[in-house]
C-alpha cells in the first residue's frame, strides 16, 4: 500500500485525535475569554501519478493537514489557521484568533449556528473506500489508459493520463458541544489527447471520478472515450450568427444549474448582487421542473449529515414545479436576510435535477436543428444581471443528427430567459459531481460566429 494512503484501520483513530484536539482548543479559547468558538480540522492524503507518451512525468505523495479556529467575543469574530499541529503552533493560532477578535468591529450577524439545529443523526453514507494502489500499479494503469487512447487511428499526440487516489478525514466542533466526524475518499482517472496536425489540431479529454475504485470505468473504455471525443472534433468550422436551440451536455449542464445556485446563495442575496433577488416563491423555470437536494445519497459526491457549521442537512426542494422554493443559506447569510439557515454553510449536498425520459439521441431528435455545446470558455456570466456570453465549441445538428463539429463561436442569452426556456432534461445524468443532471435542452440562444 502507498505510504500516502491511510488504512481503514487507522482512520477512526486519526479522527479521534483530531476531535480531541478540536475540543481541547475550544476549551482553551473559552478560557482565553472567547464567548464561543469553532474548529475545522482535516487531514488530506493521496497519490497522484501523471504519465505521458508511456513515460512517468510526475509522482506525488501528499499528506496535508489543516486546522482552523474561529472565536467570538460577543459578536466580534477572529479567525486563524495553521497546517502545523505542534503544540506551539496551536497555541499561536489560539492567540492570533483571540487578538483579531478583540480588535474587530461587532457584527450583529456573527456567531455560531443555532444549537437546536446541530445534527444528531450520522448515518453511514458509504463514502469511505481507500484505494490501496501502490505507485507501480498507478503508473501501469495510467499507461494502459493512455495506450488505449493512442491506439486509435488519427490520434497524433497525448497530453497525458492521470491517476489519483485521495482521502480526507475531517472534524468540525464548536462550543455548543457538537463534534462531527467525516471520512471520505475520492479517486479519479483522466486522459487528454491530441488529433490532427498543424492548424487542424484538436484536443479533448475524458475523466472518471468515484468514491470506490471498483466503480471506475475500465482503462480501455476511458481511453476509447477520450479518443472518440478528440477525433470527433477534427475539421471543426465556425457558424454564421443566428438564433437556435442549444443542447448542453451533462458535464456543462451542471454549470448552468451552478449559476442558479450562485444566484440564490446567501452572499449574493444579502449584497443585493443577484438577478434572482426576492424570487423565493416565484416561478423561475418551467412548471414541470424539479430540483431537490439529497444529502444522504450513498457514495454521493456531496453527501453529508451536517454542513460546515454542524447544522443537520435534510432532503429539501430547491425548485418545485418550476417555483424557487428557498434560498441556499448558512447561518451568517440567513441572519443578514432575516431568515433561517438551510443547512448549506459550505455549499450544497447533492443537488438532483429531476431527469426526463429522453436519452441524448432522443434530445437531438427533439431539437431537430441546433447546437450541441460540449465546451465553454471565458467568464462571461454575471450573477448580478443574469447576462451570459461565453466562447463555445460543440456540434451542429440537422434533422436530429450531428452534422459537423464547430468551434470559435460564442453563445449568449440571459440566464433568466435560459432557465425559463428549458425544453427538456435528459436521462443521461452525470454523477461525478455535487450537481447531478442530464443534458439540458434550451429553446434558443444567440450563436455568434463568422
TrEMBL record:
User: Which GO MF terms are attached to this record?
Assistant: metallopeptidase activity
Which superkingdom?
Bacteria
* Classification via InterPro entries: Metalloprtase-TldD/E_C, Metalloprtase-TldD/E_cen_dom, Metalloprtase-TldD/E_N, PmbA, TldD/PmbA_N, TldD/PmbA_sf
What region holds the Metalloprotease TldD/E central domain?
129-234
Q: Where is the Metalloprotease TldD/E C-terminal domain?
A: 241-449
Q: Which UniProt keywords apply?
A: Hydrolase, Metalloprotease, Protease
Q: Name one Pfam family in it.
A: PmbA_TldD_2nd
Q: Any idea where the Metalloprotease TldD/E N-terminal domain is?
A: 37-101
Q: Give the EC number(s) under which this enzyme is classified.
A: 3.4.24.-
The record's family statement is:
Belongs to the peptidase U62 family.
Q: Which PANTHER family match?
A: METALLOPROTEASE PMBA (PTHR43421:SF1)
The protein, known as: Metalloprotease PmbA
According to its UniProt entry, this protein's organism is: Frateuria flava
Amino acid at each position: 500500500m502507498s505510504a500516502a494512503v491511510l488504512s481503514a484501520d487507522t482512520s477512526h483513530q486519526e479522527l479521534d485525535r483530531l476531535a480531541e484536539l478540536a475540543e481541547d482548543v475550544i476549551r482553551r479559547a473559552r478560557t482565553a475569554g472567547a464567548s464561543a468558538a469553532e474548529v475545522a480540522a482535516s487531514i488530506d492524503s493521496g497519490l497522484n501519478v501523471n504519465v505521458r507518451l508511456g513515460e512517468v512525468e510526475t509522482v506525488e505523495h501528499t499528506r496535508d493537514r489543516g486546522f482552523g479556529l474561529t472565536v467570538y467575543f460577543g459578536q466580534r469574530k477572529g479567525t486563524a489557521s495553521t497546517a502545523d499541529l505542534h503544540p506551539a503552533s496551536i497555541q499561536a493560532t489560539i492567540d492570533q484568533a483571540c487578538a483579531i477578535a478583540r480588535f474587530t468591529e461587532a457584527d450583529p450577524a456573527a456567531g455560531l449556528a443555532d444549537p437546536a439545529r446541530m445534527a444528531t443523526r450520522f448515518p453511514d453514507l458509504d463514502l469511505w473506500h481507500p484505494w490501496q494502489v501502490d505507485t507501480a500499479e498507478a503508473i501501469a494503469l495510467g499507461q494502459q489508459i493512455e495506450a488505449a487512447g493512442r491506439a486509435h487511428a488519427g490520434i497524433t499526440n497525448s497530453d497525458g493520463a492521470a491517476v489519483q487516489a485521495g482521502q480526507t478525514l475531517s472534524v468540525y466542533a464548536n462550543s455548543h458541544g457538537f463534534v462531527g466526524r467525516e471520512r471520505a475518499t475520492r479517486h479519479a482517472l483522466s486522459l487528454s489527447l491530441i488529433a490532427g496536425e498543424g492548424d487542424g489540431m484538436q484536443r479533448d479529454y475524458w475523466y472518471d471520478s468515484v468514491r470506490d475504485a471498483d466503480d471506475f470505468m475500465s482503462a480501455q473504455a476511458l481511453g476509447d472515450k477520450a479518443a472518440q471525443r478528440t477525433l470527433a472534433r477534427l475539421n471543426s468550422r465556425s457558424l454564421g450568427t443566428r438564433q437556435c436551440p442549444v443542447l448542453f451536455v451533462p458535464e456543462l449542464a451542471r454549470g448552468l444549474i451552478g449559476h442558479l445556485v450562485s444566484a440564490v446563495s446567501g452572499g449574493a442575496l444579502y449584497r443585493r448582487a443577484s438577478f434572482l433577488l426576492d424570487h423565493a416563491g416565484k416561478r423561475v423555470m418551467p412548471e414541470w421542473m424539479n430540483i431537490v437536494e439529497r444529502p444522504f445519497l450513498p457514495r454521493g459526491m456531496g453527501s453529508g449529515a451536517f454542513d460546515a457549521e454542524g447544522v443537520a442537512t435534510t432532503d429539501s426542494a430547491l425548485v418545485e414545479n418550476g417555483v424557487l422554493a428557498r434560498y441556499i443559506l448558512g447561518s451568517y447569510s440567513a441572519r443578514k436576510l432575516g431568515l433561517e439557515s438551510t443547512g448549506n454553510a459550505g455549499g450544497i449536498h447533492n443537488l438532483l435535477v429531476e431527469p426526463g425520459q429522453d436519452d441524448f439521441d432522443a434530445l437531438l431528435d427533439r431539437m431537430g436543428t441546433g447546437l450541441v455545446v460540449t465546451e465553454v470558455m471565458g467568464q462571461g456570466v454575471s450573477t448580478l444581471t443574469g447576462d451570459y456570453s461565453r466562447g463555445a465549441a460543440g456540434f451542429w445538428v440537422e434533422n436530429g443528427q450531428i452534422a459537423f463539429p464547430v468551434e470559435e463561436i460564442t453563445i449568449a442569452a440571459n440566464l433568466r430567459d435560459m432557465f425559463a426556456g428549458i425544453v427538456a432534461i435528459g436521462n443521461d445524468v452525470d454523477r461525478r459531481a455535487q450537481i447531478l443532471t442530464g443534458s439540458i435542452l434550451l429553446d434558443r440562444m444567440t450563436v455568434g460566429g463568422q
